[in-house]
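anyone seen this seq b4? input:
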Amino acid sequence: MSLFNKMLASVGIGAATVDTKLEHDTVVPGGEIRGVVEINGGNVEQRIDDIYLSLNTTYVKEVDDKKYTASGLIDRFRLTDSFTLMANERKVIPFSYIIPADTPLSIGKTKVWIATGLDIKNAVDPTDKDFIRVHPNEIMDSVLQAVSGLGFRLREAECEQAPYRLQRRLPFIQEFEFVPTSGPFRGRLDELEVTFYPVSSFETEILMQVDRRARGLGGFLSEALNTDESHIRFTVNTSDIPHMQQKIQSVIQRFS
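predicted toks r here
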């Protein structure tokens, strides 16, 4: 019977299971996630080689001019050393985990989740998946509010494969695409794209693309040659928050 149970466990029947329970499911980039991983033994003892948490999202990748959605690993965190889990044994492992500062925000199409996995030799590895909501930190929120206050509406937020020149630690970037619906830039810009590159909890680099609206023959020629777009890099920090809208407006004004 024991051999039969081992055979079943090797294909996932009557094997160990895992369930991650988070204290909270909201966090900001660079913030802390806490919880416990509950592991319940199956019908036979099993050797657990590894327990890990991985932070994941999806992003749009392009290959041979075709776009598809790919899974993106943001970070991976090992919980424990290997151990033997006895039949019907229950283990509860607490954890505390700081998510990376470049974790994308849960806005638009972007979803972020924690996957918990057990590595079990010669067996199907049990997994668990828990979605979390990544909210903007203080600086990001200030920038997004400032852009909104200037009459821009968020049209799309999505993670996309990063061009080589823009790649940092991750193979993708999260772009926030805005369109002017009111305010000083309506009729002057087609769209505004914003990407965050956190430097620390107090400072963030911003890449901004300003897409000017074509006006006259010269404007249409510029649009055809892609010279109607300006790419701007600048840095904001917590001291900019009280006057963030004025700073963002000044930057856009110079290139619109």
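Residues 138-149 form the longest helix (12 residues). The chain has two domains: 2-134, 138-255. kinda curious what u guys think
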